[in-house]
Amino acid sequence: MKGQEWYQADDVAQEYDDKRFSGGGRLIDRREKQAVLSALGPVEGREILEVACGTGRFTVMLADQGADIVGLDISSAMLSQGREKAADADVSENVSFMLGDAGRLPFPDDHFDAVFAMRFFHLADTPVTFLRELKRVAREQVFFDTFRRPSMRVLYNWALPMGSRLYSQRDVRSLLADAGLELAHESHDFVFPYGFYRSLPGAVAKPFRAVDEAVGKTAAGDAVASVSYWDARGGE
């Protein structure tokens, strides 16, 4: 798994949200949460697993909406941040945080209504192995995102501390087939990559986001997007 030691560092966990989701990064956070909520639909009473939950920004959001949710991550430092968020939001009774390996999920088959993973597959060295595990423990739904190839993300991919795996649409469709999943819905976004937005103050980032969304609505929008969201179901 790329970047495993980097993500487990205490200082990375403490600074993770501030570095990625402040300033222009708030636009990314808002869009990602919208994507998760749109895919999972009403979550009240549903049993959900988030793989690679990090600091718990999606976990806590879904717990606040009534989901019975487990957040799993390889980083105890990230999980500590998640527990603090859950306590601050008064949703600790609805969420459990667990230390674990996404390649060997500690749950029986068909244990959750839905399983999702955000900001995960760009680090996966053997993505089909992880995707099969997500499918194994999901009764109904598997949702995840990927970074697209080709896209503007390649311009700064080399600068990341652990690199990043990029996927074409064909790559993901093949991956889904190999994992025994059927694609229910896909969407694509962010012509300007995440790193671009994070480098800007919020007020400066908003006009660029408006242009980004306008391009995304054109016929060429999907072809130039840097992020894809995939909503899948278990095949027969």
Question: What is Rg?
Answer: 17 Å
CATH superfamily: Vaccinia Virus protein VP39
Parts with pLDDT < 50 across at least 5 consecutive residues = none
Order of helices and strands: HHHEHEHEEHEHEHEHHHE
User: What's the story with the biggest beta sheet?
Assistant: 8 strands, mixed
Q: What structural class is derived from the secondary structure elements?
A: alpha/beta
Strand coverage percent = 15-25%
Task: Specify the overall morphology.
Answer: globular
What is the number of helices? 11
Report how far the terminal alpha carbons are from each other. 29 Å
What is the fold-level CATH name, i.e. the topology?
Rossmann fold
What is the CATH architecture annotation? 3-Layer(aba) Sandwich
What's the number of extended β-strand segments?
8
| The CATH class | Alpha Beta
Average pLDDT level: 89
Helix content percent band: 40-55%
Count structural domains: 1
Domain Methyltransferase: 48-140
Pfam families: Methyltransf_25
Organism: Halalkaliarchaeum desulfuricum
Protein name: SAM-dependent methyltransferase
Q: What would you say this structure looks like, in words?
A:
Pfam families: Methyltransf_25. It comes from Halalkaliarchaeum desulfuricum. This is SAM-dependent methyltransferase. The chain has 236 residues and is α/β, with parallel strands linked by helices. The chain has one domain: Vaccinia Virus protein VP39 (Rossmann fold, 3-Layer(aba) Sandwich), CATH 3.40.50. Helices cover 43% and strands 22% of the residues. The protein has helices at residues 4-7, 10-20, 25-40, 57-64, 76-88, 127-137, 154-157, 169-179, 194-198, 202-216, 221-224, and strands spanning 47-51, 68-73, 95-99, 112-117, 138-148, 166-167, 181-189, 227-234. Strands 1, 2, 3, 4, 5, 6, 7 and 8 form an eight-stranded mixed sheet that branches. Helix 4 links the parallel strand 1 (47-51) and strand 2. The longest helix is centred in the N-terminal third of the chain and has 16 residues, at 25-40. The radius of gyration is 17 Å and the shape is globular. The two termini are 29 Å apart. The model has no long low-confidence stretch (mean pLDDT 89).
